[in-house]
Design brief:
The protein is mainly alpha-helical. 87% of the residues lie in helices and 0% in strands. The protein has a single domain, classed as Up-down Bundle (Methane Monooxygenase Hydroxylase, Chain G, domain 1), CATH 1.20.58.
Length: 210
């Protein structure tokens, strides 16, 4: 059986890393669309839906490619989990866009906080995208440093999510709207959580096998 460290060094497997890179690229495009929705008050999420579907297709391609490879079972599971964690980023962006579309017009305090949270989410996804560039170029230290930075961004979003509860109380929306706003803030926070889970899996792979 081939180890992950050996597998990463084989040119015939480089296309799988490029597939991971494609997933992160789609995440960047998707979060940019969400940021624009928040800033401009848009309600259409067609492009985010398209990016999410493309990311699902990439994940399936990664799974199929790994299934055909010569990696040990545990190593395959580690990489397959990375594919799933990466895909969940796009899933949560799509969920957030649907929640945002349903709520309609945001109030000023809600909009301000959501913009800040989404910008941090974007920062985390961009860092993951850059992290994959480092992995492709075999820069382990650079990849690890970026993965650590993602965790710090998630901590910032977690603090902002706590503040969202204060915003919800302040705005005092009627029942159904309040529930939907809570779901919106939660889904935006879950994007950052998904980024952190992805960075954790990257660090595990880097420490164990590279």
């Amino acid at each position: 059986m081939t180890s992950i460290s050996e597998w990463f060094g084989e040119r015939r497997e480089e296309n799988v890393l490029e597939m991971f890179k494609s997933e992160f690229d789609l995440g960047v495009k998707s979060i940019e669309e969400l940021v624009n929705m928040v800033k401009k008050g848009g309600r259409k999420f067609d492009r985010i839906k398209m990016f999410e579907k493309e990311a699902d297709d990439v994940r399936r391609d990664i799974m199929a490619q790994l299934a055909k490879g010569e990696l040990a079972s545990q190593d395959k599971e580690d990489l397959m989990r990375l594919a799933k964690e990466t895909d969940s980023i796009n899933d949560w962006i799509y969920t957030a866009s649907k929640n945002l579309s349903a709520i309609g017009k945001l109030r000023d305090s809600e909009k301000k906080l959501l913009e800040e949270m989404c910008e941090n989410d974007k920062d985390a996804i961009v860092k993951l995208d850059e992290c994959m560039d480092k992995m492709i170029s075999r820069d382990k230290e650079g990849a690890m440093e970026l993965a650590h930075k993602v965790e710090r961004v998630e901590e910032a979003v977690d603090d902002q999510y706590y503040n969202s509860k204060k915003v919800l109380l302040k705005e005092n929306r009627p029942g159904a709207e309040a529930i939907l706003m809570y779901a919106l803030f939660q889904s935006v926070e879950n994007i950052a959580d998904a980024c952190e889970n992805t960075s954790d899996q990257i660090r595990l792979i880097l420490v164990k096998f590279w």
